[in-house]
Amino acid sequence: MEVALAAVAGRWTTLLLRELMHGPRSFSQLRAALPKLSAKVLSERLATLARADLVECERQKGFPSHAVYQLTPVGRTLRPLLIELYRTGDALLRERAAWGIRSVSGRG
Amino acid sequence: MEVALAAVAGRWTTLLLRELMHGPRSFSQLRAALPKLSAKVLSERLATLARADLVECERQKGFPSHAVYQLTPVGRTLRPLLIELYRTGDALLRERAAWGIRSVSGRG
DNA sequence: CCGTATCCCCTGCGATACTG
DNA sequence: CAGTATCGCAGGGGATACGG
Fold it and tell me: Pairing between strand B66-71 and A66-71?
């Protein structure tokens, strides 16, 4: 469980993976899909996911540069987990509509 | 997804929930089940889960004091998610046996 | 036995500015 | 456009000691 949790942990990772579940996406497409995610963090998350072999990167050299990211076969195995996260989160929200996102993991 | 993730986030939360899935447990039983989890963090996690109405606490006053924790109905709805986390983690480990737990969420 | 208070570290994240 | 460098902050978590 800890391994799977580590794979999807992080404020943006699930959203990023969900976006990539729809198909390959360029850096800028991801930025557009997740406007509040800074380039730095996006880059960090993608690098981390790539290191874990969950995501692959294809770079077109030239100008302007272009990079396309897509899930690896291993990355695609996360789909059921993401679906379950969505289902569960949805159910929790129905029970407790007032919850904030960080209300559970926070200390105070 | 973020909500569900927040609910199970934390290094020990999933293991704690899994333990409680088996039935009510006292503080010391939980400590025994998770020896590397300090009392402070255990208390923190339980308090957080209690605040989120995922776990309930029953205290016997007296000496020595005793407290019993159990899942609420809402908490029990997390079971499919935990199962999926287990399944996915297992699958990931089969693909990449060398992964460390923090290798995905870490920076470097 | 159950829990909390302190202290410290580590790391994820945000903002901004910069390079190729 | 893609990605990195720097700075700063917040908070989870470990060790330890203390309180109820």
Answer: unpaired
